[in-house]
Structure formats: C-alpha cells, structure tokens
Amino acid sequence: KNQVEQSPQSLIILEGKNCTLQCNYTVSPFSNLRWYKQDTGRGPVSLTIMTFSENTKSNGRYTATLDADTKQSSLHITASQLSDSASYICVVRGYQKVTFGTGTKLQVIP
Amino acid sequence: DGGITQSPKYLFRKEGQNVTLSCEQNLNHDAMYWYRQDPGQGLRLIYYSQIVNDFQKGDIAEGYSVSREKKESFPLTVTSAQKNPTAFYLCASELGGAGDTQYFGPGTRLTVL
C-alpha cells in the first residue's frame, strides 16, 4: 500500500531558528516528490519538486533533500519567520497516483 | 490574473440537501481534481478529470458527482448520499504531465447543519 508519513506532526520554534521536517514514503514506482506549504484555511502552494535523480533543491530559505534509496525526504527551513507558520505537506507521485502525507504543522513564535 | 478559483469560501447545508461547489481555472490546464481534507488526514482524492467530457472516480467518490463540460470548469456536487460531508474541499489543476505541479484553489469549507 502506498503511504507517505511525515514527522513530527507539529513543531513550535522561535523566530530566526532553523528546523527540519521529515517525510518517509513507500510509494512505488516513484515519479516525483513535492513539498507544499498550506496556510490555515487556504489551498496548498508548491515549494519544491524533485525527481528520482535529484538529491537537493532550494527555494529561498526552503531546501528539500531526497534519498531515493531509503525513500526519505526532508524539508529544511533556514532562519524561520513568523510567516512560515503553516502546515507542510509531502506529496509523492507514483504511476498515475498521487499520495499525500498528513502534514507537519509548524508554528513560529516571536 | 491567472489562477484557480473556488466558490463559495464557506457553505452551510441542511441534511438531505444536495449542494454544488464551483471550481474554475484560466490556466489552460487539461487536468482537474477534487480533494477532501479532514483534520489529521492527508488529502483524499474524490474525482479527477484529465480531459473535457471525461472524469474518473478517486478513492472516495461515493456520495459525490462531477461534470466537465468545459475545460475551465469542474463543479463538484455533494449529494445527500454522502454520509459525512462536513469537510474542507480543495480543487486543483495541472497541465497534464506526470512531472507537473498541481495548483490548488483556496478551498471551500462545507458544514452540514
């Protein structure tokens, strides 16, 4: 069964600190992996997309990594800002099927 | 201003009533999707359409219906057969390739009274 598991479920960090979110998946065959940011009550917005051959991809203060051998991905947020408070969703596309993780809820406090 | 829009943002329905959620996109995308989001769960696929006049059931299609008469529009009807319809509904579109990104609308929160 295709699954995407994210950890931690929730996280509170101080403004300016870094954090790393984890995503483990069992989707096979693998096509690509995306990280989305979802503000409360809004639709998700794409941050990064990585294919099998890519190990890392950055989007500003967001850096995603992918280890296709261990089926793990991480999203690293540098110098967090209050506006980073949101849910971060890992999405894995297999063959004609997209599987969503349950998300990590991040709260950045002053 | 290109994008994907959903309306209304909030919707209240009495039990036993059907209700239709609107989804429109002007991105010229071929594929469109409807998802349901519940607290503590990942997005679940209700229906999707890869081309006009064609659509397929997703993982939780029971109690829902869709149409795709125009490329730009993919309305979702929540019928009285849906046992637990209170949820946040998200519409998405993508150009159509496996490597494409799905663009999401702002969502509609449906509450059944």
Describe it.
The complex is a heterodimer of chains A (110) and B (113). Chain A is mainly beta and 110 residues long. Helix content of chain A is 0%, strand content 57%. Chain A has strands at residues 4-7, 10-14, 19-25, 32-38, 45-51, 56-59, 62-67, 72-77, 86-93, 98-100, 104-109. In chain A, strands 2, 4, 5, 9, 10 and 11 form a six-stranded mixed β-sheet that branches. A five-stranded antiparallel β-sheet of chain A has the order 1-3-8-7-6, with no helix packed on it. The N and C termini of chain A lie far apart (41 Å). In chain B, strands 2, 4, 5, 6, 9, 10 and 11 form a seven-stranded mixed β-sheet that branches. Chain B has a four-stranded antiparallel β-sheet with strand order 1-3-8-7, with no helix packed on it. The model of chain B has no long low-confidence stretch (mean pLDDT 92).
